[in-house]
Amino acid sequence: MLGSRVLVIDSDPQGNTTTGLGIDKGRLSHDIYHALMQETPLESVIVRTEIENLMLAPATINLAGADVELVAALSRETRLRQALAPVASAYDFVLIDSPPSLGLLTINALTAADDCLIPVQAEFYALEGLAQLTSVIWRVRDALNPTLHVSGVLVTMFDGRTRLALEVIRELEKYFPEQIFKTQIPRNVRISEAPSYGKPVLLFDLKSRGAQAYLAVAREMLEPARASA
User: The whole model's pTM is what?
Assistant: First the structure.
């Protein structure tokens, strides 16, 4: 919505990004599974969304078995990177939504990426998960993708009235002083409601606190200092 050409790749078997962008999974003939496991060109998988500059490589239930199938596949860690290579230059940004688990789909996402953006809920357990994730990121960088780095840490579900949320911010600033976004995403009911209408929150309620926070994050991502980090 700020003018950049963006491709979103939904590599999470839950397919929440696909649903949240209003795509009817039942009407799809191909999805990201076909690009990963059946060598269907990614260009044939990509669909348009309501936003002019936003394209999507969708996910359906087909992807649920991919982690198991990838175990025995050739080039199992680089399938997504290979699929993305022919189309990446057509976009200013490619955003890969990876699963919350640390299986081969996540490894594929990290191997294909230049940067890693980590959303962290403002809760204690999220910090434990962050330690595990960063360990995986460093291992992927050493073995598969030497250019990978963490370029952003985004605090979500933030409530500045609670002591815990502020403590989470302080802990993150210790470990990621340069990468943490200045903007936090607040707890906001409009963000929760938007997916049930098949819309990003920016289209659902642009004036809501959640939508304005995500716009602020997008502007931070476009800042020259962060873009060249």
Answer: 0.89
